[in-house]
Amino acid sequence: MIHTFSFYVNGVNNQDLQQLFTLNNINLNQFTYIKAAVEKLNQRLKQKLNQALVISSIIFNCDNDWTVKCKVDVTKLLSRGTIKETDYHEVERILRTFFDQYCGSAEYFDQHVLTRIDYKYDICIPSATDRKLLFFLFEKYTSLYRFKVKVKWGKDENGKPLKYETSQYHKNNSVQIIVYDKEAERRANNEIILPYERNILRYELRLHNQHLNSMKREDSKGHSQSKKLSVYFVDSMWEYYMKKNILSIFRLGDFYKVYEAKKVVKNSSYTRNRKEKLIKFLTTVSKGTIDTPKKHMSAPTYRQIIKDLESIDVNPVLIPKNRKDFPPYFKNPFQI
């Protein structure tokens, strides 16, 4: 359900801030810049909280108090990969204990303001070949949807171009979607693969502060949605966001090679004319990407064909017929 989230609390007084550092054996007066002190603080907190909570920054306010910004990894906090709505109270309890122990008052958590939340959907795919197939097929999906741009390339540690072979990004300024091989990510970062991360393909949806702010708006463009963790730590909210964002790019329906897909279409209850249009659409996509047919048809027609294919459980993206290392059929792992 949830992977990580970020938040801040305002109004931390000087005495309580000093206590946060003192209880972690840090003399704040020895540091010229607060950033250096925060780095030292995080080194100490890693040893106590299983690297689950990081202080992102501490900012002095004109009211002579402080803002403390935090990031929490829920999977590390609870030491497991499966997170449910019922886990919220345990997460809140741990964070309240943290503020009570280190900042003098659990009530600081009551003032928290959410600035980012990362939802996740983990699927166990034991075969590395199957994961390779999926990322190959993902290349055929749309390059732009609702201002979310597909990112195929990044940069390595030397600043040179690096193609993402085991991940795919779609992002804009407020929402980011990433699908990635969790084991491959750990290996690339020289990190330990935790038991609940083995063979995992992860769909992750990152809601940034700009989106959370827009949802908080009380006018016609918003939803009057509070920026509290409890509001977003809900199964129905997770399901709404995942379906709305993930399924708009990574389509429903199982994957077939062209011959198998044609058989499914021909055996459907559609009219002969409709079947021919669906097969033509699939053939066009197989020669390009899922965006290629848009050049030859209206947007409503395009959407209807996608819907028709999904209704007979056929993904519009086909497995290449000339790839002998790929199976003729592969069940779509995304099932919400």
Topology summary:
Blueprint: E1 2-12, H1 14-22, H2 34-48, E2 53-60, E3 66-73, H3 74-78, H4 88-103, E4 113-124, H5 128-138, E5 144-145, E6 148-151, E7 153-155, E8 161-163, E9 167-171, E10 175-181, H6 182-188, E11 200-207, H7 209-216, H8 229-232, H9 235-246, E12 255-256, H10 258-266, H11 272-287, H12 299-311, E13 329-330
Antiparallel strand pairs: 1-3, 1-4, 2-3, 4-11, 5-6, 6-9, 7-8, 9-10, 10-11, 12-13
Helix pairs in contact: 10-11
Protein name: Replication initiation protein
How much of the sequence lies in strands comes to 15-25%
- List the domain count as a whole number: 3
Class of secondary structure makeup: alpha+beta
The SSE order reads: EHHEEHHEHEEEEEEHEHHHEHHHE
Largest sheet: 9 strands, antiparallel
| Coarse shape | elongated
Total helical elements:
12
Average pLDDT for all residues: 90
What is the helical fraction, as a range of percent?
A: 25-40%
Strand order of the largest sheet: 2-3-1-4-11-10-9-6-5
Number of strands: 13
Q: Which segments are poorly predicted (pLDDT under 50) over 5 or more consecutive residues? A: 144-148, 152-164
Distance from N terminus to C terminus (CA atoms, Å) equals 12 Å
Radius of gyration, in Å, reads 24 Å
Organism: Piscibacillus salipiscarius
Protein name: Replication initiation protein
